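Can't paste images in this forum, so I'm doing it all in text. The chain is below; anyone willing to post the predicted C-alpha coordinates underneath?
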Amino acid sequence: MKYRALATDYDGTIAHDGVVDTETIDALRRVRASGLKVLLVTGRELPSLFNTFAHPDVFDLIVAENGAVLYEPASGTVQPLAEPAPPALVDALQRAEVPLSVGHTIVATVTPYEHHVLRAIHELRLEWHVIFNKEAVMALPSDVTKATGLAAALPRLNVPPEHVVGVGDAENDHAFLRLSGLSVAVSNALQEVKALVDVTTAGARGAGVQELIAKLLNGELDAIEPAPDKHQSLASRR
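Text version of the structure:
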Protein backbone atom coordinates (compact mmCIF):
# COMPACT_ATOMS: atom_id res chain seq x y z
CA MET A 1 0.00 0.00 0.00
CA LYS A 2 1.37 3.39 -1.05
CA TYR A 3 -0.15 5.49 1.74
CA ARG A 4 0.62 5.09 5.42
CA ALA A 5 -1.61 7.67 7.09
CA LEU A 6 -4.97 9.42 6.84
CA ALA A 7 -5.26 13.04 7.99
CA THR A 8 -8.76 14.45 8.26
CA ASP A 9 -10.45 17.69 9.17
CA TYR A 10 -13.30 17.61 11.70
CA ASP A 11 -16.21 20.00 11.09
CA GLY A 12 -17.81 19.50 7.70
CA THR A 13 -15.56 16.54 6.93
CA ILE A 14 -16.06 13.71 9.41
CA ALA A 15 -18.59 15.69 11.47
CA HIS A 16 -22.02 17.07 10.58
CA ASP A 17 -23.19 19.83 12.91
CA GLY A 18 -20.37 18.80 15.24
CA VAL A 19 -21.41 15.13 15.42
CA VAL A 20 -19.51 12.15 13.97
CA ASP A 21 -21.76 9.17 13.23
CA THR A 22 -20.99 5.63 14.39
CA GLU A 23 -20.28 4.38 10.88
CA THR A 24 -17.56 6.99 10.37
CA ILE A 25 -15.96 6.24 13.73
CA ASP A 26 -15.95 2.54 12.87
CA ALA A 27 -14.33 3.30 9.51
CA LEU A 28 -11.59 5.34 11.20
CA ARG A 29 -10.97 2.46 13.60
CA ARG A 30 -10.57 0.12 10.62
CA VAL A 31 -7.82 2.35 9.28
CA ARG A 32 -5.86 2.06 12.53
CA ALA A 33 -6.53 -1.67 12.76
CA SER A 34 -4.95 -2.03 9.31
CA GLY A 35 -1.69 -0.57 10.66
CA LEU A 36 -2.07 2.89 9.13
CA LYS A 37 -1.89 6.06 11.22
CA VAL A 38 -4.89 8.37 11.67
CA LEU A 39 -4.61 12.08 12.43
CA LEU A 40 -7.21 14.73 13.11
CA VAL A 41 -6.32 18.23 11.88
CA THR A 42 -8.86 20.72 13.24
CA GLY A 43 -9.33 24.39 13.93
CA ARG A 44 -11.13 23.57 17.16
CA GLU A 45 -9.65 24.12 20.58
CA LEU A 46 -9.25 20.88 22.53
CA PRO A 47 -11.99 21.59 25.14
CA SER A 48 -14.46 22.34 22.35
CA LEU A 49 -13.51 19.12 20.59
CA PHE A 50 -13.74 17.00 23.74
CA ASN A 51 -17.14 18.47 24.64
CA THR A 52 -18.44 17.40 21.22
CA PHE A 53 -16.50 14.26 20.36
CA ALA A 54 -16.19 11.32 22.76
CA HIS A 55 -13.72 9.23 20.76
CA PRO A 56 -10.38 11.09 20.50
CA ASP A 57 -8.66 7.72 21.00
CA VAL A 58 -9.55 6.82 17.40
CA PHE A 59 -6.66 9.11 16.38
CA ASP A 60 -2.94 8.61 16.84
CA LEU A 61 -2.44 12.38 17.05
CA ILE A 62 -4.67 15.45 17.00
CA VAL A 63 -3.52 18.75 15.55
CA ALA A 64 -5.77 21.39 17.14
CA GLU A 65 -6.17 25.18 17.00
CA ASN A 66 -5.47 25.16 13.26
CA GLY A 67 -1.90 23.99 13.76
CA ALA A 68 -1.01 25.61 17.09
CA VAL A 69 -1.43 22.61 19.41
CA LEU A 70 -0.54 18.91 19.18
CA TYR A 71 -2.34 16.35 21.35
CA GLU A 72 -1.59 12.65 21.84
CA PRO A 73 -4.75 10.80 22.97
CA ALA A 74 -2.89 7.71 24.22
CA SER A 75 -0.90 9.69 26.80
CA GLY A 76 -3.02 12.82 27.17
CA THR A 77 0.05 14.91 26.32
CA VAL A 78 -0.56 18.44 25.03
CA GLN A 79 2.29 20.12 23.14
CA PRO A 80 1.91 23.80 22.24
CA LEU A 81 3.40 24.55 18.82
CA ALA A 82 3.15 28.34 19.10
CA GLU A 83 3.31 31.09 21.70
CA PRO A 84 0.17 32.03 23.67
CA ALA A 85 -2.15 34.70 22.30
CA PRO A 86 -0.94 38.24 23.09
CA PRO A 87 -3.02 39.64 25.98
CA ALA A 88 -3.10 43.02 24.20
CA LEU A 89 -4.90 41.46 21.23
CA VAL A 90 -7.46 39.73 23.42
CA ASP A 91 -8.00 42.92 25.45
CA ALA A 92 -8.48 45.03 22.32
CA LEU A 93 -11.09 42.67 20.91
CA GLN A 94 -12.91 42.35 24.21
CA ARG A 95 -13.08 46.14 24.48
CA ALA A 96 -14.58 46.20 20.98
CA GLU A 97 -17.19 43.67 22.21
CA VAL A 98 -16.12 41.05 19.67
CA PRO A 99 -17.42 37.57 20.62
CA LEU A 100 -14.27 35.55 21.26
CA SER A 101 -12.95 32.10 21.97
CA VAL A 102 -9.32 32.07 23.10
CA GLY A 103 -7.24 28.90 23.16
CA HIS A 104 -3.58 28.42 23.91
CA THR A 105 -2.74 30.44 20.80
CA ILE A 106 -5.81 30.80 18.61
CA VAL A 107 -8.14 33.78 18.89
CA ALA A 108 -11.41 32.84 17.21
CA THR A 109 -14.60 34.67 16.30
CA VAL A 110 -17.10 34.67 13.43
CA THR A 111 -17.88 36.84 10.43
CA PRO A 112 -18.30 39.80 10.14
CA TYR A 113 -15.92 40.51 13.06
CA GLU A 114 -12.84 39.78 10.94
CA HIS A 115 -12.57 43.54 10.33
CA HIS A 116 -12.13 44.16 14.06
CA VAL A 117 -9.52 41.42 14.26
CA LEU A 118 -7.55 42.72 11.29
CA ARG A 119 -7.66 46.26 12.66
CA ALA A 120 -6.39 45.15 16.08
CA ILE A 121 -3.57 43.11 14.52
CA HIS A 122 -2.56 46.12 12.41
CA GLU A 123 -2.72 48.61 15.28
CA LEU A 124 -0.72 46.34 17.58
CA ARG A 125 1.79 45.61 14.78
CA LEU A 126 1.53 41.87 15.31
CA GLU A 127 2.93 39.34 12.86
CA TRP A 128 -0.36 37.48 12.83
CA HIS A 129 -2.79 36.48 10.10
CA VAL A 130 -6.51 35.76 9.81
CA ILE A 131 -7.72 32.40 8.48
CA PHE A 132 -11.28 31.63 7.45
CA ASN A 133 -13.25 28.41 7.84
CA LYS A 134 -16.54 29.35 6.20
CA GLU A 135 -18.16 31.66 8.81
CA ALA A 136 -15.46 31.02 11.41
CA VAL A 137 -12.61 33.53 11.74
CA MET A 138 -9.30 32.48 13.31
CA ALA A 139 -6.34 34.66 14.17
CA LEU A 140 -2.94 33.00 14.58
CA PRO A 141 0.77 33.79 14.22
CA SER A 142 1.57 34.19 10.53
CA ASP A 143 3.70 31.03 10.44
CA VAL A 144 1.00 28.76 11.93
CA THR A 145 -1.34 26.77 9.68
CA LYS A 146 -2.79 23.28 9.56
CA ALA A 147 0.19 22.39 7.37
CA THR A 148 2.74 23.41 9.99
CA GLY A 149 0.82 21.45 12.62
CA LEU A 150 0.69 18.35 10.43
CA ALA A 151 4.39 18.75 9.60
CA ALA A 152 5.16 18.75 13.34
CA ALA A 153 3.02 15.65 13.94
CA LEU A 154 4.22 13.37 11.14
CA PRO A 155 7.82 12.80 12.34
CA ARG A 156 6.42 11.42 15.61
CA LEU A 157 4.65 8.75 13.56
CA ASN A 158 7.59 8.20 11.19
CA VAL A 159 5.41 9.06 8.20
CA PRO A 160 6.60 11.45 5.43
CA PRO A 161 4.05 13.90 3.99
CA GLU A 162 3.99 12.19 0.59
CA HIS A 163 2.60 9.04 2.26
CA VAL A 164 -0.40 10.88 3.73
CA VAL A 165 -3.94 11.05 2.35
CA GLY A 166 -5.51 14.33 3.47
CA VAL A 167 -9.23 15.12 3.39
CA GLY A 168 -11.07 18.36 4.14
CA ASP A 169 -13.81 20.75 3.11
CA ALA A 170 -12.95 24.41 3.75
CA GLU A 171 -10.46 27.23 3.14
CA ASN A 172 -8.28 26.52 6.16
CA ASP A 173 -7.80 22.91 5.01
CA HIS A 174 -5.98 23.85 1.82
CA ALA A 175 -2.60 24.23 3.54
CA PHE A 176 -2.51 20.70 4.96
CA LEU A 177 -4.11 19.18 1.85
CA ARG A 178 -1.31 20.70 -0.22
CA LEU A 179 1.26 19.17 2.13
CA SER A 180 -0.34 15.70 1.87
CA GLY A 181 0.67 13.20 -0.77
CA LEU A 182 -2.92 12.82 -2.02
CA SER A 183 -5.52 15.51 -1.41
CA VAL A 184 -9.24 14.80 -1.15
CA ALA A 185 -12.35 16.94 -0.72
CA VAL A 186 -15.70 15.61 0.49
CA SER A 187 -18.57 16.41 -1.88
CA ASN A 188 -19.94 19.16 0.39
CA ALA A 189 -16.60 21.02 0.30
CA LEU A 190 -16.33 24.56 -0.98
CA GLN A 191 -15.89 24.71 -4.75
CA GLU A 192 -12.54 26.45 -4.41
CA VAL A 193 -11.31 23.53 -2.28
CA LYS A 194 -12.54 20.96 -4.81
CA ALA A 195 -10.62 22.79 -7.53
CA LEU A 196 -7.36 22.35 -5.65
CA VAL A 197 -7.46 18.64 -4.77
CA ASP A 198 -6.77 15.38 -6.56
CA VAL A 199 -10.03 13.63 -5.67
CA THR A 200 -13.57 14.62 -4.65
CA THR A 201 -15.75 12.00 -2.99
CA ALA A 202 -19.26 11.19 -4.17
CA GLY A 203 -20.53 11.25 -0.58
CA ALA A 204 -20.77 14.21 1.78
CA ARG A 205 -19.08 14.53 5.17
CA GLY A 206 -18.87 11.19 7.01
CA ALA A 207 -20.25 9.18 4.10
CA GLY A 208 -17.57 10.67 1.86
CA VAL A 209 -14.84 9.82 4.38
CA GLN A 210 -16.16 6.25 4.66
CA GLU A 211 -16.01 6.02 0.86
CA LEU A 212 -12.45 7.34 0.90
CA ILE A 213 -11.38 4.89 3.61
CA ALA A 214 -12.75 1.94 1.65
CA LYS A 215 -10.67 2.99 -1.36
CA LEU A 216 -7.62 3.59 0.82
CA LEU A 217 -7.79 0.14 2.41
CA ASN A 218 -8.40 -1.76 -0.83
CA GLY A 219 -5.47 0.01 -2.52
CA GLU A 220 -7.62 1.85 -5.06
CA LEU A 221 -6.02 5.19 -4.21
CA ASP A 222 -2.57 3.89 -5.17
CA ALA A 223 -3.51 4.13 -8.86
CA ILE A 224 -4.26 7.86 -8.67
CA GLU A 225 -1.38 10.08 -9.74
CA PRO A 226 -1.33 13.26 -7.62
CA ALA A 227 -0.91 16.51 -9.54
CA PRO A 228 2.52 17.97 -8.60
CA ASP A 229 1.28 21.57 -8.78
CA LYS A 230 -1.32 20.77 -6.10
CA HIS A 231 1.22 19.50 -3.56
CA GLN A 232 3.96 21.30 -1.69
CA SER A 233 6.09 18.19 -1.14
CA LEU A 234 5.78 16.94 -4.73
CA ALA A 235 6.34 20.32 -6.35
CA SER A 236 9.52 20.82 -4.33
CA ARG A 237 10.96 17.60 -5.75
CA ARG A 238 10.40 18.47 -9.43
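The longest strand covers residues 128-133. The chain has two domains: 5-80+144-235, 87-141.
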